[in-house]
Amino acid sequence: xxxxxxxxxxxxxxxxxxxxxxxxxxxxxxxxxxxxxxxxxxxxxxxxxxxxxxxxxxxxxxxxxxxxxxxxxxxxxxxxxxxxxxxxxxxxxxxxxxxxxxxxxx
Length: 106
What we know:
Elements (H helix, E strand, L loop, with lengths): L12 H28 L14 H11 L3 H5 L1 H8 L4 H10 L10
Protein backbone atom coordinates (compact mmCIF):
# COMPACT_ATOMS: atom_id res chain seq x y z
CA UNK A 1 0.00 0.00 0.00
CA UNK A 2 1.40 3.39 -1.06
CA UNK A 3 0.95 6.29 1.30
CA UNK A 4 1.02 9.73 -0.21
CA UNK A 5 2.33 12.42 2.08
CA UNK A 6 1.65 15.99 0.96
CA UNK A 7 4.55 18.39 1.07
CA UNK A 8 2.40 21.00 2.74
CA UNK A 9 3.63 19.88 6.13
CA UNK A 10 7.15 20.97 5.08
CA UNK A 11 6.40 24.06 2.97
CA UNK A 12 3.35 25.89 1.85
CA UNK A 13 2.81 26.35 -1.90
CA UNK A 14 4.46 29.78 -2.04
CA UNK A 15 7.60 28.57 -0.30
CA UNK A 16 7.80 25.52 -2.54
CA UNK A 17 7.46 27.71 -5.62
CA UNK A 18 10.23 29.99 -4.35
CA UNK A 19 12.43 26.98 -3.69
CA UNK A 20 11.93 25.73 -7.25
CA UNK A 21 12.72 29.19 -8.66
CA UNK A 22 15.91 29.16 -6.59
CA UNK A 23 17.08 25.63 -7.42
CA UNK A 24 16.37 25.64 -11.17
CA UNK A 25 18.72 28.53 -12.11
CA UNK A 26 21.34 27.21 -9.71
CA UNK A 27 21.24 23.80 -11.37
CA UNK A 28 21.56 25.39 -14.83
CA UNK A 29 24.48 27.53 -13.60
CA UNK A 30 26.29 24.51 -12.14
CA UNK A 31 25.74 22.38 -15.23
CA UNK A 32 27.00 25.16 -17.50
CA UNK A 33 30.17 25.70 -15.48
CA UNK A 34 30.72 21.94 -15.22
CA UNK A 35 30.74 21.75 -19.06
CA UNK A 36 32.96 24.84 -19.37
CA UNK A 37 35.55 23.34 -17.01
CA UNK A 38 35.50 20.03 -18.87
CA UNK A 39 35.92 21.74 -22.24
CA UNK A 40 38.86 23.72 -20.86
CA UNK A 41 40.51 20.49 -19.71
CA UNK A 42 39.80 20.77 -16.00
CA UNK A 43 37.74 18.29 -13.96
CA UNK A 44 34.08 19.23 -13.72
CA UNK A 45 33.95 18.92 -9.94
CA UNK A 46 35.81 22.25 -9.72
CA UNK A 47 32.37 23.77 -10.24
CA UNK A 48 31.71 23.25 -6.54
CA UNK A 49 34.48 25.73 -5.67
CA UNK A 50 31.86 28.40 -6.44
CA UNK A 51 30.31 27.62 -3.06
CA UNK A 52 33.44 28.44 -1.02
CA UNK A 53 33.73 32.17 -0.32
CA UNK A 54 37.09 33.64 -1.27
CA UNK A 55 38.21 30.46 -2.99
CA UNK A 56 35.64 31.05 -5.74
CA UNK A 57 37.16 34.45 -6.60
CA UNK A 58 40.73 33.14 -6.54
CA UNK A 59 39.81 30.12 -8.66
CA UNK A 60 37.90 32.31 -11.14
CA UNK A 61 40.98 34.52 -11.63
CA UNK A 62 43.27 31.50 -12.02
CA UNK A 63 40.85 29.97 -14.52
CA UNK A 64 40.55 33.21 -16.50
CA UNK A 65 44.24 34.07 -16.76
CA UNK A 66 46.04 30.72 -16.79
CA UNK A 67 46.85 28.51 -19.75
CA UNK A 68 44.14 25.85 -19.90
CA UNK A 69 45.22 22.19 -19.98
CA UNK A 70 43.28 21.57 -23.21
CA UNK A 71 45.53 24.05 -25.03
CA UNK A 72 48.53 21.82 -24.39
CA UNK A 73 46.71 18.88 -26.00
CA UNK A 74 46.04 20.63 -29.32
CA UNK A 75 49.12 19.95 -31.52
CA UNK A 76 49.13 23.17 -33.56
CA UNK A 77 48.69 25.42 -30.52
CA UNK A 78 51.18 23.48 -28.40
CA UNK A 79 53.73 23.68 -31.21
CA UNK A 80 53.27 27.42 -31.57
CA UNK A 81 53.28 28.00 -27.82
CA UNK A 82 56.68 26.33 -27.52
CA UNK A 83 58.15 28.84 -29.96
CA UNK A 84 57.80 32.59 -30.15
CA UNK A 85 54.53 34.01 -31.41
CA UNK A 86 56.00 35.52 -34.53
CA UNK A 87 55.09 35.38 -38.18
CA UNK A 88 58.40 33.62 -38.83
CA UNK A 89 57.58 30.85 -36.34
CA UNK A 90 54.17 30.33 -37.96
CA UNK A 91 55.69 30.22 -41.45
CA UNK A 92 58.36 27.76 -40.30
CA UNK A 93 55.71 25.51 -38.81
CA UNK A 94 53.62 25.69 -41.99
CA UNK A 95 56.62 24.74 -44.15
CA UNK A 96 57.39 21.74 -41.95
CA UNK A 97 53.77 20.53 -42.04
CA UNK A 98 52.79 21.63 -45.56
CA UNK A 99 51.56 18.18 -46.54
CA UNK A 100 49.38 17.94 -43.40
CA UNK A 101 47.50 21.19 -43.99
CA UNK A 102 44.25 21.41 -45.92
CA UNK A 103 44.43 23.43 -49.19
CA UNK A 104 42.51 26.39 -47.70
CA UNK A 105 45.21 26.93 -45.05
CA UNK A 106 48.18 26.55 -47.38
